[in-house]
Amino acid sequence: MKDPTVLGPHQIGEDPIISFYRGKRPDSSGRYVEDIWAFSYEQLETVHDFIQWLFPLPVRSAYNPDAPLLTQKTISAFLGNESLRGKLIRSLELMLVFYGFELVRDAHGSLLILRSAEFAKRSRQWLSPNNHNHLRLSRIMESARLLGLEQYSRGLIVILEGIAHEYPNCVTARTVEFWKRAAGE
């Protein structure tokens, strides 16, 4: 039986982002979303053309001009489709683990993003001035916010601002401003 939460081709046209998240088409390098979800930490760090597919934006990427742009049609599809948002959450969780974070719910059901037990080890990969992962974090927050995961963006900016305050020599004030804008603050 067909899942009623999954949009059919007549409803989505040929939108590459939706087709990618539905597992119907690969990214511009021939990888399906499941392939990227299986990346090692080394691949997540050294491969630079996947993040634009996992977290699309409405502006062209200078680092991956082949990645599709987020359109209003794409945004509407994610906002109206729990299955697509669930897959986006899976992508978000992948990257959070990569950065040394974890998603938890407090006693009231509110979403929190906290440092994981691996934070000290994982943060060595990105907690340095002008690190390319700072741009990725901006992309993740903005894309998640635009695609209906505002609570995740808010949770991420809260922890990132705390880390920036704790490590002022590793995260510039300019980076924090970019992060705030990306999270919608």
Present the secondary structure layout:
Blueprint: H1 9-12, H2 16-21, H3 33-37, H4 41-46, H5 51-54, H6 72-79, H7 82-99, E1 101-105, E2 111-115, H8 119-123, H9 132-146, H10 150-166, H11 173-182
Antiparallel strand pairs: 1-2
Helix pairs in contact: 9-10, 9-11, 10-11
Q: Would you write up a description of this structure?
A:
With 185 residues, the chain is mainly alpha-helical. It starts with 8 loop residues before the first helix and ends with a helix. 53% of the residues lie in helices and 5% in strands. It has 11 helices and 2 strands. The chain has one domain.
As a whole number of angstroms, the C-alpha radius of gyration is 16 Å
Strand order of the largest sheet: 1-2
Question: What is the distance, rounded to the nearest whole angstrom, between the alpha carbons of the first and last residues?
Answer: 42 Å
Q: Hey, roughly how much beta strand do the residues contain?
A: 5-15%
List keywords for this structure.
5% strand, 11 helices, mainly alpha, 185 residues, globular, disordered N terminus, two-stranded antiparallel ribbon
What is the gist of this entry?
The protein is mostly helical and about 180 residues long. It has helices at about 10, 15-20, 35, 40-45, 50-55, 70-80, 80-100, 120-125, 130-145, 150-165, 175-180; strands at about 100-105, 110-115. The protein is globular.
